[in-house]
# Entry
Amino acid sequence: MKNPGSSGTDRMLDLAMGLPEQLVSGAKAARAARIGRPARFDAVAVAGMGGSGIGARIVQGLLLDESPLPVHVCNDYDIPAAVTAKTLFFAVSYSGNTEETLSAYAQARERGCRIIAITSGGELGRSATRAGCPVVSVPVGMPPRAALGYLFSTLLISLERLGVCQSHERGFGEAERLMRARRKSWLGRARTMAEYVNGRLALVYSTGRMLDAVADRWRCQLNENAGVMCHTNCFPEHNHNEIMGMGRPKHPGRNTVVIALLDRETHPRTRYRLESVLSINAETYHVAMRLKSEGRSRLARIFSLVMLGDFVSVELARLVGKDAMEIERIDELKRRMARKRG
# Structure
């Protein structure tokens, strides 16, 4: 078994610990960027993949109950037909070379969208600059999944400046203070949780649409940092199908761990559904962990669970003996895709 020692796993932990500083720095960069004046839009669309796209998913969940404009998140080569010249379009690629995002960006240009690029450079940065599209820059030198603070805050602040949503200045301030104050204790909690997850399949359940993307963030981080499978679903939808499949087949069966993400806005009936499901299916999982968000603002509550999940993924990487920075299979797939394109 490979021992990551003090290599990439420690580096990934340092990046995860720096999430509050990233939020502040990204917000500052977006406030200083030249992105143009507010205007009337029919919709917002964001193209982004993997670590570059999860920030858009979190913004989408945050704004569902705040903004009347629909927010489309595009995780593919092609953009929806609903994206038109009246759509505010963001192309988000940390490296600037994500081929799906570059394809979506090209289509948005053809449709006459107002476009803003968020990137550290690459082809997206060069192309957007040549086309006269605003570019909000983020720092280089980290995996996209570790740059969530920058990618989220630059997107949200840009939306605020263009009049799409209300100001979240207080939320940013509270989220920063909360994460700074609690990150050491959350890390200790994450180490205990990682012990439970080690060798088992994690079932991460959201209990509200604001938390759906947070559950996805947990899955992606466990996939990439720890190199393990993870399943996600949302309540109450789970209760209309997946409840029947819990525990079957026998493998993984009871060799699963339920991680339920809860928030103060979780509907009381959904809370009751969760407890009922756990009771009805008590023989189908090893342990159930109920994680309650912390903080007052939505933004702080979201990131309290995001940071905890990031810590769990890094500590699980230590237990399974994986370097949390390495993504060999993704790198190999990229090489094959590049050869095919050539």
User: Anything to note?
Assistant: Residues 1-5 have pLDDT under 50 and may be disordered. The beta strands are 43-47, 71-74, 87-93, 114-119, 135-137, 201-206, 230-234, 256-262, 287-292. The chain is about 45% helix and 15% strand. Residues 169-197 form the longest helix (29 residues).
